[in-house]
Amino acid sequence: MILAVETSTKYLSIAIAKNYNEIILEANVFLEFSHSENLNKLLNELKIELLDIDEIIISKGPGFFTSLRISTAFAKALKIVNQNVKFKAISSLKNIAYKLKGYKVIPILQAPKNQYYACAFDENFQLVLDEGIYDLDFLKSEFKDFIIIEDIPRAYHLIKLAEFENYLDIEVFEPNYIREPDAVYNKRSK
Q1: CA atoms of 109 and 70, how far apart (whole Å)
Q2: Hey, which end of the chain has fewer CB within 10 Å, N or C?
Q3: Are the C-beta atoms of residues 3 and 19 closer than 8 Å to each other?
Q4: What is the pTM (predicted TM-score) of this model?
């Protein structure tokens, strides 16, 4: 069984699949920042046994720091309980862009200070602008023929995108925060 856990935003999405092409269900929880309690609650309600999970796929970011840490910590804990579980991580921006695969698209997520986490994909779903923090006006002026989409990443898309990704070592995995947390930045600037 494959379990996908998407926590890069303030919402939670999980999906369960037999394989990359046979997704059994997706559950989305739109209660802000309730990832931990709802992840455990959903797994219990669905009677998911941790030892039955063959693969876990999470969002690697960018996104909210604490939200990304929750799915990372869950995947690391799962590896302790189930030594055989395999691990993959997918960009939250690539997740959003998947909805418009085949078009020139710029997926965005709100970042601090009126900026956006963003990147750009061409119509062949090839990355043409690296993930980073960008000003929306810059994206609009430099990528005039691209569709800009701000959306909620979904666990369903994690499974669809994971088929062609390599397995990672969860023990050394770190989310892609793109920027430092404000607490670290504020401490350094003193």
Answers
A1: 18
A2: C
A3: no
A4: 0.91
